[in-house]
Design brief:
globular, 4-stranded antiparallel beta sheet, Rossmann fold
């Protein structure tokens, strides 16, 4: 079963000069339930824009995105927010943790937008990522690698069908990055979630049997401007 299917997806921006910069032009892309795929691409190649379109954070200019068979592009903003909370876990490069809240509270707050807070499950996730004894710590009291693991626990808190990871090791040292990728893949496999990870790091990409170059599926000219 396909968890994600994309048809003729397009996204452009207008430059200050009034010209149209095409960032995403993807004729087709699909991801099976439970599948783990990495997308490679240099900085500025549209990787984050692509993930934000899949997540429903951005609305495309054209094309359709099906998540679990539901057409995301046909939904209202509020409905996209609900769908994202129910079916998608997102690991941001900068983690986006709320600094005034503890690790446990960050995970619980993520649950509030989905099926509702479950303290026992949240604590179990933190224990699984090795932070059971750090549940009461705030982000500033955690290392960068530990913050990344909190972000992973939060992404899995609503038992998503799809996890999106945007350069999740970009702020980690090489040793920690390798362990982080292994943990992300392992926990997605355990939960049955499909994983779509984007990175420009060859060492990260080497952890995946399935790697696709965004440039091969995206027809938008690199750095090009179309009028």
């Amino acid at each position: 079963m396909r968890i994600l299917e994309i048809e003729n997806l397009k996204k452009s921006y207008t430059t200050p000069d009034g010209e149209i910069l095409t960032v995403i032009d993807v004729p087709g892309f699909a991801l099976e339930s439970g599948e783990q795929i990495a997308l490679s691409g240099e900085s500025g190649s549209g990787k984050t824009t692509f993930l934000n379109l899949v997540a429903g954070i951005l609305r495309p200019d054209g094309g359709r995105i099906f998540l679990g068979g539901e057409d995301v592009t046909a939904l209202s903003e509020a409905a996209r927010d609900r769908l994202r909370a129910d079916k998608i876990g997102y690991i941001f490069q900068t983690f986006n943790l709320l600094q005034g809240y503890t690790a446990l509270e960050n995970v619980l707050l993520g649950m509030m937008f989905g099926k509702g807070a479950d303290k026992g499950f949240a604590l179990g996730l933190l224990e699984r990522v090795g932070l059971g004894d750090r549940a009461g710590y705030k982000p500033s009291q955690l290392s960068v690698g530990q913050q990344q693991r909190v972000a992973l626990a939060r992404a899995l808190a609503n038992r998503p069908a799809l996890v999106l990871a945007d350069e999740p090791t970009g702020n980690l040292d090489p040793g920690t990055a390798g362990k982080a990728v292994s943990l992300i893949k392992e926990m997605c496999a355990e939960s049955g979630a499909a994983l779509l990870l984007v990175s420009h790091d060859d060492k990260v990409l080497g952890n995946f049997g399935g790697v696709k170059d965004l440039g091969e599926i995206n027809r938008a000219p690199r750095g090009g401007i179309e009028k």
